[in-house]
Each structure stands twice: as C-alpha cells, then as structure tokens.
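Q: Here's a chain of 183 amino acids. Please give me its 3D structure as tokens.
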Amino acid sequence: MRPGARLGLALLVALPACEAADGGTTGRAGNRAAPDPFQALPVERRGAVRPFDLERLDGGRLTLAEYRGRMVLVNIWASWCGPCRAELPALDALVRDLGDSAPVFITLNEDVERDRAAAFVAELGFPYPVGLGEGRLRGRHYGFGLPFTMLVDAEGRAMYRWYGYGGEQQIQAIRRMVEAEIE
C-alpha cells in the first residue's frame, strides 16, 4: 500500500472517533452539533458562539457582537470549496424567501487570498457582509471542514451547526428552525 493511501485510510478510520457520547459531533474547537443534524439544539444545550472581529471584504470590521439581539445565520466558506459554491446560493435564496422574518446573514471567508473571495462574491452578486478569516478560522470557529453553517439565536448561542452541505433537506431544516424561533 502506498504511504499516502495509508494516511488516507488512517484519517478515514479516525474520523468516527470525533463522535460525542450523546451521538453529536465535537470538533477541535468544541463545536457540538445536534444528534439529529436537522433539529435545533434545545435552549438548555445551546452554547455561546465564540466572538470574532474580522476585516470585512468591503472595508470596516465584522463582529458577531454587532448583531446581538437578532438571529444570525453564519456561513464559513472558501472559493475553492465545491460544496460552498452550492450552499451559498441556496442560503441566499432562503434568506430572500424568508423576507422580513429572515435572520441576519453573514459569511466568513477562509481564502488566504482576498482576491479569490472578492471574485467569488462578485460572481454571485452577493450583498451580505463577508468577514475575512484568511485561513485562520479553522480550529477556532469550526473543526471538520467547509462549509460550516451556524444559526445563532438572539442571545448569541448556537442553535444549529452543520458541517458540509446537506442540500434541500438542510435548507428546509433551517427554514423550520427560523420559523419556530420567531413564533
């Protein structure tokens, strides 16, 4: 077996060890997903989201604190990430469809080169705030990979965390959670 193949096999075998005892998943940053990825965490299990203060793609700073008191949908992405390229337009469509009841939608980009982020945002015609992580967010704000999406309640606690893109099932789950939270 080639050395690279052994490493890939070792990583594949090691990943299930990231499961928490309750069936949720825990990343290096201590992020915990609901045991059922399409259900919001109960209020008593919601933990505070780590604060961030990042340069914005369009200038200025982007912080989670500035949105305190409002529900926020946060998506961490990179231009080179295929699933991110599918998920961002779907989240955009969801936010537009929810209209006045939509959470604030902000994104954090993991591209090391801001020009790549800017090109992708221009390609999408994306009107949302983009914070620049410059490859430094992994381990602090997410642990497994991209895309990473969080729905944050008005108190700044994560009510939903999702690694990867779960397609229409994920988008509809976010819709249900938003609608349930505002009732």
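Q: Can you summarize the key feature?
A: Residues 1-35 have pLDDT under 50 and may be disordered.
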